[in-house]
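>> received
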Amino acid sequence: MVTQEELSRAFQEVGERYGYNNVTAEFANFTHLKVRWTRSYKTAEFRVSDYLLDADVKVLEDLANTLYSRIAGSNCQYAESMRDWALNPEFSKNKRPVYLRRSRNLTRTSIGTTRNLQDSLTRLEEAGFIEKDSNVEVVWSTNKNSRRAGGCSVLMRLISISDELDSQDVPDYLVDYAVYCQYLRIIHGARTFGVSDDINTRDDERKYPRYREAENLLDKMCLFI
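>> returned
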């Protein structure tokens, strides 16, 4: 477990190499894995996600180096140590419950009023669209301010599906398609994490047998993937 002092020391030591002589860093309980910072001349303040509490000091130092580089105008990527740590299956398994507790509009369960999203995962696994034991969890979203049929967290390997699909009037293939699309974004997003924000899954989405029917029905429901 990294202490507050170790976090500050890591950011201070790296900051000195970039010309900062007054650096503070503290952990914060953000919902997402992120860092916020402010800077002025040779002063910098960082608020670092407490998901990093159990990261190695090496990961913190490499993260600090990436952030200082970006502050200086470089479009550098995350270091390999940061990618390996955040994409390790143990990260999502251990942090996902915390993420769910902190997230608004997520039910924390696959069981809805009329259907269980776990059934969609099972059908997709049996059809070969999702790998078995993929370490992916799926829950319902109750967000009434969004017209998205689903969303996901790449690092938490978590899929959320709009509860507007929690109806016996909605065919299984549509719910399965919504889950499948978010699964693709998790898989592609993991490959490009820290390298690029561009996630293009459209070609793979079209491999779903009832892709056009699903897209047409989403349009009628005023929803989108």
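>> Helices lie at 4-17, 57-71, 80-87, 89-102, 117-126, 172-192, 202-205, 211-220.
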